[in-house]
């Protein structure tokens, strides 16, 4: 075995070159100045066994030879040039048991350009543009190879390259773990790709394709699998988990098939596809995702899922989201333990669900809105707040042979939605089997409700729903409850002796609660916990003159009082003109209150409602005060429900929205406040006589709010500005508080309070009237601490407040 020399910078090595011919055996030996020279001397079929060492050469294998390290010493041969491509293979060679190390960020470490070579037990540890790159007509078989390349792509297959990678591992990549582009089409078998800083598997470009079997993709700083720009991929028995972005993404005419795969521990969408992409899932499990399990967007985009399971969401988003004209088909699937199971929205969007189970859903199992269509056949919905909700005009579809069990409300139809529901059964709803309101329509044929805690079929607002051959059994509040001039009923039956009946006309006060609560809620009816008697008086009892008299007693607010009186006079004169048979000017009663906290906005709103009730403009005049937290939900769809419920509680009175600008933050992004605004604007238009809305907040913020929401601004008649209180007015508030609580300001206390209110900081924490009341309360507390030390205090001691009782300035 000859030895060959190297320069001092190179380790010593021995190369054995053998050749086997068909007719003779010969052994060729010689002294070679480099490993490259030995390769040059070798012929097809020769075996080059390389002695341990570090070879700083750029090797090119252009013959069908075997290049391997010594047996029993893995990792002892290192090919590590200073720059360029360390190892290039252009023939059907065998490369085995060598380490390849590159340092060139513009070149791959191991480049396969032609032939069908075999790479076995090769370890690539590099900071190159790519760890292993296959291009052109190359079709390598790569077995048990490892790539560690924190500087670039792990494995790249491009320009028509292909090959098979078996039991390979990308342990680190500064970009994509595996990148396929330019018509590349590799096959991965039992490979692992992890700790990549781009997509785990990336396939892009027309003609590019990837087939993966038994592979795992995990610990990815990006998407697990990304297929884009007319590329295609097929994954079988693969796992994708622990990414920082979406688990699987498809974009722009991409095609992907997932069979027997597992996608889990994903902080964003488990699968997101758009722009005419097509996804087929079979026997695939999706779980523990932070946003949507399936997120499907755009016309022509389609998902077909068969025998799949989607469950255990970790966020507050629907498990399946279909919008902007996309299509999803779920057959023999299970969706469970999620906030919402399926949301389909936008005209042209469609969902078909067949022989599937939707269970353990915290909110709505199926939501159809904005003109979308859903078709459910033999679907079983169990343990959800709402089974199916058709939300608005143009939204519809077909529910056939479905069962809904253990929900609050089985099916809701609102705002002109018009589904067809056939042979469906709702069992044990807490509040209603079928609930139709706000212009909802629908055709219900051979449907059944049993064991309802409320009504079986509840149709309000005169909705023209059609009921044919429906039946109810054991419904606590009655089988059927209809408004007059309501649904069309044919051959419907009930186990009640009275059969089908329209709603009786109740007394005036209960009638309001029954007809108005929950236009978008699960079930209409009074809600005592949300309507305490102190907040919701049954009926205004004072005249407008008496209420205006109370307004006049408020400290300051002179411009506000003038505005309210002017508005009241307009309404009063308009009423009198109508009584005289004259035209009355239309007065928009919705108001904007601007000003700092503590300037009396809520008090004036309460009095304004009482004035309007005394004039017969509002039925009750009560005040319902809400803020962003009361209107904006945590997930899509819940905001409209909360806003509707707040509006319903305010019917006949005033809905007062404090800090309304918080519904439209400057950095709103996907904020749900916009949904509250849109819902509110529509309600104000549809029920303009039922509720007066007052929005309030800081002056500058409210001006911005109105400027960016013209739909809101157009519905308010005027803005009333509440100025800050002057020190003298704050003193007067303290004096009123003292008089009410039987205290007296001692000598010099008034002057001390004026100085105090002049000096108190007027920053964000300053609360005007609230500051005055807090100051009085602090004085009472300090007074108590002082007087408690006296053995026998007299009446003056018990009632007089002195300058020393003032709190320290904040």
TrEMBL record:
InterPro entries: AAA+_ATPase, AAA_lid_6, ATPase_AAA_core, Beta_helix, Carb-bd_sugar_hydrolysis-dom, CbxX/CfxQ, CbxX/CfxQ_RuBisCO_ESX, P-loop_NTPase. Residues 1-23, 493-541 are annotated as: Disordered. Pfam families: AAA (PF00004), AAA_lid_6 (PF17866), Beta_helix (PF13229). It comes from the Bacteria. Residues 587-726 form the AAA+ ATPase domain. Gene3D superfamilies: 1.10.8.60, P-loop containing nucleotide triphosphate hydrolases (3.40.50.300), Single-stranded right-handed beta-helix, Pectin lyase-like (2.160.20.10). Keywords: ATP-binding, Nucleotide-binding, Repeat. GO terms for molecular function: ATP binding; ATP hydrolysis activity. Residues 50-181, 322-483 form the Carbohydrate-binding/sugar hydrolysis domain. Belongs to the CbxX/CfxQ family. This is AAA family ATPase. It comes from Streptomyces typhae. The lineage of its organism: Bacteria, Bacillati, Actinomycetota, Actinomycetes, Kitasatosporales.
């Amino acid at each position: 075995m000859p030895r060959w020399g190297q320069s001092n910078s190179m380790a010593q090595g021995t190369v054995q070159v053998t050749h086997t011919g068909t007719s003779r055996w010969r052994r060729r030996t010689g002294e070679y100045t480099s490993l490259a020279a030995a390769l040059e001397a070798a012929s097809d079929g020769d075996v080059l066994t390389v002695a341990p060492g570090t070879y700083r050469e750029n090797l090119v294998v252009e013959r069908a030879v075997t290049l391997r390290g010594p047996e029993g010493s893995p990792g002892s041969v290192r090919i590590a040039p200073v720059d360029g491509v360390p190892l290039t293979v252009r023939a059907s060679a065998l490369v085995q048991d060598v380490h390849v190390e590159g340092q060139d960020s513009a070149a791959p470490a191991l480049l396969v350009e032609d032939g069908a070579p075999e790479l076995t037990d090769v370890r690539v540890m590099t900071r190159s543009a790519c760890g292993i790159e296959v291009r052109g007509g190359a079709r390598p078989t790569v077995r048990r190879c490892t790539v560690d390349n924190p500087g670039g792509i792990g494995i790249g297959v491009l320009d028509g390259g292909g090959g098979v990678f078996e039991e390979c591992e990308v342990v680190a990549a500064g970009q994509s773990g595996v990148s396929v582009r330019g018509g590349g089409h590799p096959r991965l078998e039992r490979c692992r790709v992890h700790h990549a800083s781009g997509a785990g598997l990336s396939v892009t470009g027309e003609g590019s394709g990837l087939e993966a079997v038994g592979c795992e993709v995990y610990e990815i700083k990006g998407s697990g699998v990304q297929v884009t720009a007319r590329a295609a991929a097929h994954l079988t028995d693969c796992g994708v988990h622990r990414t920082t972005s979406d688990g699987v993404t498809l974009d722009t005419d991409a095609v992907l098939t997932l069979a027997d795969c597992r996608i889990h521990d994903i902080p964003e969408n488990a699968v997101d596809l758009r722009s005419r992409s097509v996804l087929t899932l079979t026997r695939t499990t999706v779980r523990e995702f932070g946003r949507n399990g399936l997120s499907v967007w755009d016309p022509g985009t389609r998902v077909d899922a068969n025998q799949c399971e989607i469950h255990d969401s970790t966020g507050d988003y629907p498990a399946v989201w279909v919008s902007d004209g996309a299509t999803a088909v779920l057959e023999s699937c299970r969706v469970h333990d999620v906030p919402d199971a399926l949301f389909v929205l936008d005209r042209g969007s469609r969902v078909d669900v067949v022989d599937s189970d939707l269970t353990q859903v915290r909110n709505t199992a199926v939501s159809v809105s904005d003109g979308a269509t859903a078709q459910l056949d033999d679907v079983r919905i169990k343990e959800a707040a709402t089974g199916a909700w058709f939300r608005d005009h143009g939204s519809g579809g077909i529910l056939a042979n479905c069962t809904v069990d253990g929900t609050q409300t089985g099916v809701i139809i609102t705002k002109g939605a018009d589904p067809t529901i056939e042979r469906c059964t709702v069992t044990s709803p807490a509040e209603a089997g079928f609930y139709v309101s706000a212009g909802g329509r629908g055709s219900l044929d051979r449907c059944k409700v049993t064991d309802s805690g409320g009504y079986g079929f509840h149709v309000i607002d005169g909705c023209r729903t059609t009921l044919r051959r429906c039946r109810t059994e054991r419904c606590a509040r009655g089988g059927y409850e209809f408004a007059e001039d309501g649904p069309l009923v044919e051959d419907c039956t009930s186990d009640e002796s009275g059969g089908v009946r329209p709603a009786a006309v109740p007394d005036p006060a209960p009638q309001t609660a029954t007809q108005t609560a929950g236009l978008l809620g699960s079930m209409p009816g009074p809600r005592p916990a949300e309507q305490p008697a102190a907040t919701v008086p049954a009926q205004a009892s004072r005249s407008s003159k008496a209420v205006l008299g109370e307004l006049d007693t408020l400290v300051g607010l002179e411009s506000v009082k003038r505005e309210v009186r002017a508005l009241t006079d307009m309404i009063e004169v308009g009423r009198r003109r109508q009584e005289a048979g004259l035209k009355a000017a239309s007065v928009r009663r919705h108001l904007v209150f601007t000003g700092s906290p503590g300037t009396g906005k809520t008090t004036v709103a309460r009095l304004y409602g009482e004035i309007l009730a005394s004039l017969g403009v509002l039925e009750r005049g009560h005040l319902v005060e809400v803020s962003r937290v009361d209107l904006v939900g945590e997930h899509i769809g819940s905001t409209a429900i909360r806003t509707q419920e707040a509006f319903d509680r305010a019917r006949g009175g005033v809905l007062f929205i404090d800090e309304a600008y918080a519904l439209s933050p400057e950095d709103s992004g996907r904020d749900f406040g916009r949904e509250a605004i849109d819902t509110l604007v529509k309600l104000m238009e549809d029920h303009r006589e039922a509720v007066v809305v007052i929005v309030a907040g800081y002056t500058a913020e409210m001006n911005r709010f109105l400027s960016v929401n013209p739909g809101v601004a157009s519905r308010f008649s005027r803005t009333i500005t509440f100025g800050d209180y002057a020190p003298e007015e704050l003193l007067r508030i303290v004096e009123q508080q003292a008089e009410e609580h039987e205290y007296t300001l001692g000598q010099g206390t008034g002057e001390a309070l004026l100085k105090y209110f002049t000096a108190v900081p007027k920053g964000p924490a300053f609360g005007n009237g609230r500051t005055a009341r807090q100051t009085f309360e602090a004085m009472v507390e300090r007074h108590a601490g002082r007087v408690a030390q006296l053995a026998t205090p007299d009446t003056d001691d018990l009632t007089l407040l002195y300058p020393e009782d003032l709190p320290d300035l904040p």
